Amino acid sequence: MTKFIDLTLNGISTGAIYAAVALALVLIWRSTRIVNFAQGAMLMITTFIASAVINSSGSYVLGFVVALASGLVLGAIVERVAVRPVENAPPLNAVIMTLGLYTLLVAVAGMIWGNTPRSFPAAFSLRGYRVGATNLLFTPNDTFTVLVVIAVAVALAVLFRGTSLGLRMRAAAFAPEVARLLGVRVGRMLTVGWALAAACGAMAGVLVAPSVFLGPNSFDPILIIGFVAAVLGGLDSPPGAVIGGVVLGLALSYVSGYEGSALVPLAALVILVIVLMIRPTGLFSATKERRV
Amino acid sequence: MTSKLVGVFRGSTLLRSLAIVLVAGVVLIVVTDSVSSYRNLQIAYGAYYFCVLAGLTVLAGASGQISLGQGAFMAVGGYTFAKLNASPVGWSVFPSLSGAVAASILIGIPVGVAASRLRGPYLAGATLAFAVGLPALADKFPAFFGGENGLIVNPPIAPPWLGANFQLERWEAWVACAGALVVVFVLYNLTHSAVGRSWRAVRDGEIAASLSGLRVGRQQALAFTISASCAGLGGGLLAAVTQVASPGAFPLQLSLTLLAGVVIGGLGSLAGAVWGAALLVFLPNWTTDIAGSFSLSSNVSHNLPIAVYGLVLIVAMLVWPSGIQGGVRVIKRGAGSAIRSRRGRGSAEPATAASEATEPIADEEMNASHP
């Protein structure tokens, strides 16, 4: 029973991180109809930058802020330079482009920082809360992670539903031609969407780095699982992405706890295939029968 | 007489493919006889890469699907080969390779059926998850799959009639090239037959294809399974040539490298797969040489090939989606029209290289960038 509670708590905190990655993928999918396979590599780069800042300044908060800022910049650059030319090309071109970005960024990180994973500091203690005589598998740092992800999800919801910028971004994604006629700078909105998504991913990178260590390939499984979470929630729906992330976090935590961590990628694959076979638009998608 | 012979070759795909295989086989025998054992090993590497790339390029070019899971199918082939080749079963090289192909077909059918229901980024993501998920089985059952160290494969033994001093590397090159030629023969005939035409019809318009009586899902599953079997053969050859099948031999990076190989060669072109295979074999050597001559650090030289693959993918998508073989076609047509204009017929078709490059490429040449 203690094990079950531990696994549930652990599932919630990892699920929060998957939710953040899924949110980043969903933001980009909504604005440009592209699955950003480079997301894992982009958040790896920003986490390396955060690590460098934390090591030189000694301030975790500064590192976190720099990671978010560099995520914004990186996302905007990637959209302008690499993604804009393939936005209206066949979907295969965009897939190959983002995979090329992934490959290039991983190689560049390996050149600069080496391929040996290194440790990354946590914001708060990594010792579990004490209840009675047992240590729970839930730490103050996990609380921080969950709270930050909730805050960001709420902030994004407010941005999209309650502000003029959010309205313009939704218009640009939903009906680019009409939005352009009404004076919305569609291109700029797409850049903003990519920048926000990359910042969201950067946050996920900093949050997860203490538990997976920091190396060029450390975040590959997180990207795959984030993609599965996004599909689970329907690639179109930010609330779906959050729910999908938490559900997947719980499921994979149980698999890892009861069957061994080696099976986690395989379990993610099985869940993905089942979801895609039964309901290809995802569990929480509002749009029906969209041809992808 | 000669014109009659040319006519027969034009008319029969089977004869043409046999001629290609025969000529390529003779050339390869001559080449493997005259080069060093190290070069023979490189030829063997190139041949197994070619098998995988040819399957992937036909999948992407002819049926318009993408698979990032080819590395996982290579793992299926490699591990099956190692299991069949080792002591309890003890099959020799060619039966074991057939077993590797059979196993990858068995895995390829359900994956292909699932893939036929997915499109674009969904398909890419699902096959990517397949590439990451499947090798985890080796960790889960270490007793059967040898865990992180994998399975050791005995070096293939050349048959005695080739002489006692026949080099191991040369025999490995022959085995791998034999596999590659089988792939050429099968894929050439498939893509130039009713099957290939059905794939291209499905690629260009699913609704039109199904109105014409084609079972869209079945065609896509077939294309996926055939490309999986090519990858399985490539993986089996990899195990035979490198004498090991381990999880480290089939990382996620491998699947992305294969994608870079087909994109640089030109999606959909079997000749392009040769270019791609050459790139995958020689690029790591070149970058090591370059890094050595500029005395770059080991971090840089180790990651340089990967960076080049990434750049190749990005630059190809930005400026030259038809790859090397697309360039070759442009040059060929340019030369052809130059000859025609010298004969005085060219004024009617003033084709410049630039307009050829942007022209939609002919149906038979299968360019996936314009599906």
List the main descriptive attributes of the protein structure presented here:
heterodimer; A: 292 residues; mainly alpha; ABC transporter involved in vitamin B12 uptake, BtuC; two-stranded antiparallel ribbon; 11 helices; 2 strands; 1% strand; globular; B: 371 residues; two-stranded antiparallel sheet; 17 helices; disordered C terminus
Strand content of chain A: under 5%
- Tell me which oligomeric state these chains represent: heterodimer
- The portion of residues forming beta strands of chain B comes to under 5%
Query: What proportion of the residues of chain A is helical, as a percent range?
Result: over 70%
User: On the 0-100 scale, what is the average pLDDT of chain B?
Assistant: 82
- Poorly predicted residue ranges of chain A: 288-292
Spatial extent as radius of gyration of chain A: 19 Å
Q: Give the domain tally of chain B.
A: 1
- Show the largest interface: A-B, 56 and 51 residues
CATH fold annotation of chain B: ABC transporter involved in vitamin B12 uptake, BtuC
Shape of chain B: globular
Number of strands of chain B: 2
State the end-to-end distance of chain B: 41 Å
Under the CATH scheme, the architecture of chain A is Orthogonal Bundle
Portion of residues in helices of chain B? over 70%
Output the strand order for the largest sheet of chain B: 1-2
Quantity of strands of chain A, as a count? 2
Class of secondary structure makeup of chain B = mainly alpha
Q: What's the helix-strand series of chain A?
A: HHHHEEHHHHHHH
Q: Please report the number of helical segments of chain B.
A: 17
- Report the mean per-residue pLDDT of chain A as an integer: 86
